[in-house]
Design a protein that fits this description.
disordered N terminus, 12 strands, Helix Hairpins, alpha+beta, Beta-Lactamase, about 400 residues
């Protein structure tokens, strides 16, 4: 105790023998103390040395220590140092500032090592001369409230996540439906349009062949070059029509058990890499897939052609095939310039292309054909140069 300071005297009234004690009335000595002692919320009084000089029953129940153990001792005798230091800091703010201090949430560890969350109000008490001698603390145990708040927060976070996931799924579904609608319309147009265009192309091609034959001995170099250009343009136009027809005629697959190596070799032969392209083929010969031979070969060939066109003249084409149950994974890599972020957004959309020629149907058709087998085609990134596509088709027995 500090000398020279007035103390607030608090008389403890014992109710050990209620049957023999006189009736407790509002004007009886100790009436107010007895009322506060039985208040449901923890209440305590501390002196300037941070020692408890009075506690009610709820406080004892909260901390798990009897009144006799608490009186005359401080927070550091019962609680972890970090908690006790915080309690003393708030005590000093009340004593030195002479103001009510409110703590919205503070943890406290009881005798059973359970952590509670408290909302505490600390009010300075003054003697007759106005000097602050004690403080009274009123506690609300908000542990359950905080637990409910945390559960509500987690529930809200989970709900927000689910709403976001659902919204994203709906957007993706809507995009897929629009894409399919687009593809259906394109497919319907392709068959009739291709037939109408292919007929005059055949006429032009036949005319070029006749001119070459008739002018074989008399045509100069300029005429020969014009005829060559005509032939190439007819061939390119015919290829575009073939792409349209392939896209429009994705029929149900006729599946069989086929060696993946044979599918890859057939696709490489169809794509016909030039002599300036280095082809690296790494295929597990024992791999077997349950697919439609023509559809799968054509799809792989389309991906290979896309890689060859991206590289231009020369470069390295790598085709690897390994087991990745339940799929056979076929990766096609090139050493071209790679894909920009803008190109990736519309990568598999029909009629979207960065090439000077073509309709942008190669990858779209390849994806449709692979999905028709129960597999998938995706862009698999880059190892620093070029692009890598992965084709996954069902393994045998899956």
């Amino acid at each position: 105790m500090r000398a020279g300071r007035n103390r607030v005297k608090i008389r403890v009234v014992s109710r050990a023998h209620p049957a023999t004690d006189p009736p407790l009335t509002p004007d009886a000595p100790g009436f107010l103390e007895e009322v506060v002692r039985h208040v449901a919320h923890p209440v305590f009084v501390k002196d300037r040395d941070h020692r408890w000089v009075w506690v009610n029953d709820a406080l004892c129940e909260l901390v798990g220590h009897p009144r006799e153990a608490l009186l005359g001792r401080t927070d550091h005798d019962f609680f972890p140092a970090e908690q006790a230091d915080f309690f003393h800091l708030k005590d000093r703010q009340a004593f030195e500032g002479g103001v009510t201090v409110t703590i919205e949430a503070e943890p406290i560890t009881d005798a059973a090592h359970r952590t509670h969350v408290l909302a505490t109000t600390k009010v300075p008490l003054r003697d007759a001369s106005g000097e602050i001698t004690h403080l009274v603390g009123i506690i609300h145990d908000i542990t359950q409230l905080k637990s409910v708040e945390e559960k509500l927060r987690l529930s809200n976070d989970d709900l927000e996540r689910r709403v976001e996931d659902r919204t994203r799924a709906l957007r993706e579904t809507q995009h897929a439906l629009l894409r399919k609608e687009r593809l259906v319309v394109l497919g319907q147009l392709s068959g009739g349009l291709a037939h109408q265009i292919r007929t005059p192309l055949t006429t032009i091609s036949n005319a070029v062949a006749v001119l070459r034959r008739k002018l074989a001995d008399t045509a100069d170099d300029e005429i020969r070059e014009v005829l060559r250009i005509l032939s190439e343009e007819v061939w390119e136009a015919n290829r575009i029509i073939t792409d349209l027809l392939d896209f429009a005629r994705v029929r149900p697959p006729t599946c069989a058990l086929l060696p993946v190596a044979a599918l890859v070799d057939g696709a490489l032969a169809a794509a016909n890499p030039g002599p300036d392209v280095t082809v690296i083929r790494e295929v597990r010969e024992e791999l077997l897939a349950w697919v439609d031979e023509r559809q799968t070969r054509d799809a792989i060939a389309n991906v290979v052609r896309n890689a060859l066109e991206a590289m231009g003249v020369g470069g390295r084409l790598t085709v690897r095939a390994v087991a990745a149950p339940p799929y056979a994974s076929i990766c096609v890599e090139d050493t071209g310039p790679g894909l920009s972020s803008e190109a990736l957004v519309h990568l598999f959309e029909p009629l979207v292309t960065t090439k000077a020629l073509g309709l942008g149907l190669g990858l779209t058709t390849a994806r449709a054909l692979i999905e028709n087998q129960g597999g998938d085609l995706r862009y698999a990134g880059s190892d620093g140069e070029g692009a890598r596509f992965e084709i996954r088709i069902p393994l045998s027995g899956t």
